[in-house]
């Protein structure tokens, strides 16, 4: 109860600090003093503290199961384990917005203390733009989604957290994703400030690169965790479904990746300034757009916590204010100067990065259209459609092979003007890749031409980057690791999709089922009780064609609050393949529907994404050595 | 000059997006197919929940009154939520409620009814879900309003709410 009050008033104080901070900052902006007024940093720190206090008090309310708080009442229950009580704090609309605020204020504070060498006016402008976003979110939280609404009479018990969200991967997925998502706000503010101050230069590129890297790393890990969760919790046996909510996190990732590459050009050569600014703006806009899409209820998914049009309208207006503001600033202040730095030969690092940009823009537009087109169509013609994986696969996959080839060549080129070196080793690699692919694929797939081109491109990238990584002196280790990780990623995905196999059947206890030399024996079921759910565990013995035996024990859980049935897949992971079994109840209790899948190289998908994130970290910490 | 034209086009495009999203917000995203309203009742035979005997659909909808067919199951959490509203509807004299027990365990279903009350004048067993398919249902819960001419005039996908209850009351008046 007390925590509730503290939380609410800290939130209001935080908003007050925002307004006061803007006042001080504007006054300081016109001041001739060389350094930023130290008061500003103190104020920013205080603002951060109050937001954190507010967030901590919400966590306290969740831990104490204080049902006088509406958010706690709606999303918690006394029988829930402590871990999920805490993670329930951000497993709902109100709490997760509070987390947005924490990250927003944290990033501006870190920015202020980390940017001491930058020009004063630029720092202050960044602060002002960021405060504008922060104030917007404060108002949003306080007006439409106050996490501290008071309930009287106090209900004896809460409604519980959606059971599919009660999962360790999903407990840490939102904070990490937010660090990436919201982290892009600082890139947005900083680039607007830089444009307004005509400061889009090499120095600025070096300074903003850190922030881009931080966002990118967190976003990558966040998306991966969400995907891991979808893989074993949703029980569909896949890791990416082109669901609107997944797309919404992928879109900022694509622009952020393009931005990361442009920043390299800006940092070394001072070119591509428009690209950098536009990409910075789009990244954050897409993050906001994602929030709008999943929070307004315009799309339906596990992430849509509440369907409240008032919230949607607020974010929508806020989003478009930000878009207009940023475009206005861009068109008014931005001028692409230094014409000579934009002069480069067609075969050069700059142009290869431009090619990368255009590929990213293409992928982005495919995902964007697939995500918002159904909404547009619904409004214009009242027709309901849903865009599924075939759309994305058809449009994206054919463009992957040239993209992969460019990725192999690009890093070998030099700045300004270049020619291809080591032609012999590249040709050898290309031939090896094509032959290897052909032999691997010969007996597996029917669509051999298509896959040969695609997979040999992936192998080619794999070989060239491996050579770079393992046999050369490390001139640009982060890049080599990143591209190596990406090639591994594409290879794992491709082989995973080609080699996966699946058996679906209805089976009852004691029964055997044979299919393609695989025998599934349903041995028994057992019941188990936990504090927040009861579960039925199935014991399966699976013998494959080589006589190897695997035992898998999938579960069906019946959660008590709210009453929901979930299927927990049992997955046996090995280095080469995952064996995945999930069961569902059908027709009374006698028969169970089971789905047994063999998914090769699943582990490698996660490993390769981890390598990708690692490369970001390497670049972040090693940046001084590479020249 | 060219720059200005681009700017104007961009501006118009953004405004267009805004309007689309704004309108999209007010659209309901619950999918209601139009072709299923004003449809004749299917003719079927079903087992009665209590007497366990087969009855013809003609006998079920024999009376001159509005009928509501509600598809429910004891394992379905939203059904539990909408149940009090069904109890409220049952008090209305001009409606008769028919429950369609969808793919359920008989004992669990009985427990459900004993615990929360029985709003239905008749409950039919739809053990394998085929009957619900004949009605054109997508899942549970789903509610159909049938007029005196024995035509399905309304269909509500998902749990009903207070607003729907008011709407139904208005129609049957």
How would the blueprint of this fold be written?
The complex is a heterodimer of chains A (627) and B (173).
Chain A: H1 2-29, H2 38-63, H3 70-75, H4 82-87, H5 93-114, H6 120-144, H7 168-196, H8 202-233, H9 244-269, H10 273-295, H11 309-333, H12 349-381, H13 389-409, H14 423-441, H15 448-471, H16 477-499, E1 501-508, E2 512-515, E3 518-529, E4 533-543, E5 549-552, E6 555-559, E7 564-568, E8 570-573, E9 577-586, E10 591-600, H17 602-622
Antiparallel strand pairs in A: 1-10, 2-3, 3-4, 4-5, 4-6, 6-7, 8-9, 9-10
Helix pairs in contact in A: 1-2, 1-6, 2-5, 5-6, 5-7, 6-7, 6-11, 7-8, 7-10, 8-9, 8-17, 9-10, 9-12, 10-11, 12-13, 13-15, 14-15, 15-16, 16-17
Chain B: H1 2-26, E1 39-40, E2 45-48, E3 54-56, H2 57-60, E4 66-72, H3 77-90, E5 95-102, H4 106-116, E6 122-126, H5 130-135, E7 142-146, E8 151-157, H6 162-172
Parallel strand pairs in B: 4-5, 5-6
Antiparallel strand pairs in B: 1-8, 2-3, 2-6, 4-7, 7-8
């Amino acid at each position: 109860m007390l925590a509730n009050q503290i939380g609410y008033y800290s939130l209001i104080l935080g908003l007050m600090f925002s307004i006061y901070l803007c006042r001080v900052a504007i006054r300081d902006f016109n001041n001739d003093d060389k350094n930023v007024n130290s008061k500003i940093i103190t104020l920013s720190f205080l603002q951060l503290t109050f937001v954190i206090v507010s967030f901590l008090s919400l966590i306290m309310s969740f831990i104490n199961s204080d049902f006088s708080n509406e958010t706690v009442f709606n999303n918690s229950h006394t029988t829930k384990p402590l871990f999920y009580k805490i993670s329930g704090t951000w497993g709902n609309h109100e709490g997760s917005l509070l987390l947005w605020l924490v990250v927003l204020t944290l990033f501006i504070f870190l920015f202020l203390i980390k940017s001491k060498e930058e020009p004063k006016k630029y720092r202050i402008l960044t602060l002002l733009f960021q405060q504008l976003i922060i104030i917007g979110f404060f108002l949003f939280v306080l007006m439409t989604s106050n996490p501290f609404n008071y309930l009287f009479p106090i209900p004896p018990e809460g409604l519980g957290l959606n059971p599919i969200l009660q999962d360790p991967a999903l407990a840490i997925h939102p904070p990490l994703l937010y660090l990436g998502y919201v982290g892009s706000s600082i890139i947005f503010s900083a680039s607007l400030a830089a444009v307004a101050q005509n400061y889009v230069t090499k120095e600025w590129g070096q300074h903003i690169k850190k922030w881009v890297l931080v966002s990118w790393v967190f976003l990558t890990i966040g998306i991966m965790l969400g995907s891991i969760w979808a893989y074993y919790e949703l029980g569909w046996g896949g890791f990416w479904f082109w669901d609107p909510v997944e797309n919404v996190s992928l879109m900022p990732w694509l622009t952020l990746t393009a931005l990361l590459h442009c920043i390299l050009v800006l940092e070394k050569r001072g070119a591509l300034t428009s690209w950098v600014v536009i990409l910075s703006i789009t990244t954050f806009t897409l993050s906001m757009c994602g929030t709008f899409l999943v929070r307004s209820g315009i799309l339906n998914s596990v992430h849509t916590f509440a369907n409240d049009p008032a919230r949607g309208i607020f974010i929508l207006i806020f989003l478009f204010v930000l878009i207009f503001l940023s475009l206005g600033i861009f068109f008014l202040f931005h001028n692409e100067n230094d014409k000579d730095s934009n002069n480069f030969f067609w075969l050069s690092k700059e142009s290869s990065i431009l090619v990368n940009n255009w590929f990213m823009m293409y992928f982005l537009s495919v995902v964007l259209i697939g995500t918002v087109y159904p909404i547009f169509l619904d409004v214009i013609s009242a027709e309901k459609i849903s865009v599924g994986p075939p759309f994305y696969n058809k449009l994206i996959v054919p463009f992957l092979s040239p993209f992969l080839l460019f990725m192999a060549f690009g890093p070998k080129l030099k700045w300004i003007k270049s020619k291809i070196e080591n032609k012999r080793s590249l040709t050898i690699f290309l031939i090896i890749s094509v032959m290897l692919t052909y032999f691997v694929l010969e007996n597996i797939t029917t669509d051999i031409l298509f896959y040969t081109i695609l997979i040999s491109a992936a192998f080619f990238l794999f070989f060239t980057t491996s050579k770079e990584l393992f046999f050369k002196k490390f001139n640009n280790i982060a890049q080599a690791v990143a591209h190596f990780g990406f090639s591994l990623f594409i290879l794992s995905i491709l082989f995973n999709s080609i080699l996966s196999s699946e058996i679906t059947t209805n089976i009852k206890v004691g029964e055997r089922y044979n299919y393609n030399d695989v025998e599934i024996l349903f041995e028994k079921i057992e019941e188990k009780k936990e504090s927040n759910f009861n579960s039925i565990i199935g014991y399966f013995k699976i013998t494959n064609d080589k006589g190897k035996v695997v035992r898998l024990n999938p579960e069906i859980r019946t959660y008590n609050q709210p009453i929901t049935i979930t299927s927990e897949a049992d997955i046996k992971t090995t280095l080469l393949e995952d064996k995945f079994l999930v069961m569902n109840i059908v027709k009374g209790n006698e028969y169970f529907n089971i789905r047994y899948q063999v998914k090769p190289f699943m582990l490698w998908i996660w490993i390769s994404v981890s390598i990708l994130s690692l490369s970001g970290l390497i670049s972040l910490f090693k940046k001084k050595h590479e020249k | 000059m060219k720059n200005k034209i681009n700017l104007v086009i961009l501006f118009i495009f953004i405004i267009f997006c805004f309007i689309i999203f704004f309108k999209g917000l007010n659209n309901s995203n619950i999918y209601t197919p139009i072709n299923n309203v004003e449809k004749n009742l299917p003719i079927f035979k079903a087992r009665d929940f209590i007497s366990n005997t087969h009855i013809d659909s003609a006998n079920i909808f024999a009376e001159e009154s509005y009928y509501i067919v509600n598809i429910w199951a004891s394992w379905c959490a939203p059904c539990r939520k909408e149940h009090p509203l069904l109890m409220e509807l049952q008090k209305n004299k001009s409606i008769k409620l028919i429950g369609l027990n969808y793919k359920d365990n008989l004992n669990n279903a009985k427990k459900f009814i004993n615990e929360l009350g029985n709003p239905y004048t008749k409950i039919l067993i739809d053990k394998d879900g085929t009957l619900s398919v004949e009605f054109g249902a997508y899942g549970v819960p789903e509610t159909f309003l049938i007029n005196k001419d024995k035509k399905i005039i309304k269909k509500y996908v998902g749990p009903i709410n207070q607003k729907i209850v008011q709407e139904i009351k208005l129609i049957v008046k």
